Structure of NAD(P)-dependent dehydrogenase (Short-subunit alcohol dehydrogenase family):
Amino acid sequence: MKLEHKVAVVTGAGSGIGRATAIRFAAEGASVIVAELNERSGKETEELITESGGKATFVQTDVTSFDAVQNAVNVAVEQHGKLDIMFNNAGTGTKPTSVLDMSIEDYDKTIAVNQYGVFFGIKAAGNAMKEDGGVIINTASIYAFIADRNRISYHASKGAVVSMTKSAAFDLAKYNIRVNAIAPGLIETGIVTDWRNQPEVWEQIERAQMRRKAGQPDDVAKLVTFLASDDASFLNAHVHYVDDGAAAFKR
């Protein structure tokens, strides 16, 4: 198993990419801290893992609070003696709004989850990994690199994740900590459920994928698991696309 004897924290592990990755981490032998704000969905992920014979502990975590993120890391260390993998995945989408109409409150909320949540995870995990090394993986987006209308806060937050990933990789390399990011394209998760209910919109979005279809959370989880494993030991400070070529596709 690729992650045998490893200890991982996965934020936003109650659904979508986070849940799929937590399940795959556990299947590959890792002990997983299911760090999730929603108690019901977090416990569901925990149960899905333990009922399959894996090891998981739910820790209610609001990634907009550094203390909460630090607590999830502390639980990992207290229960298992170390932290090997941190997947800063928790994120939020945005209601399409022009920059001229977006409220300061809505902008701040997106930045708090998508940007500060990743910073808090890097800081807390990095300090826990200083002695023995480890791997930090952050969820960015293809929208860190390509533009769309009415999503300035999402673009800003995911662009920040890319820059933080590269900067943190420089800071943490001396501790043998690798820092990478993933950039998903259209993945069928809760964030895009509303689009699914609008056939014309969904068809337009799917046309932006080279093979005209959405990806599934486990498509991303496979990449994250690879990056977390020793198979990716020479990969550092990069953003890895998982988008079926959408970011390269000429619209």
Observations:
- The mean pLDDT is 93.
- The beta strands are 7-11, 31-36, 55-60, 85-88, 134-139, 177-184, 239-242.
- The longest helix spans residues 104-129.
- Residues 210 and 245 are 6 Å apart (CA to CA).
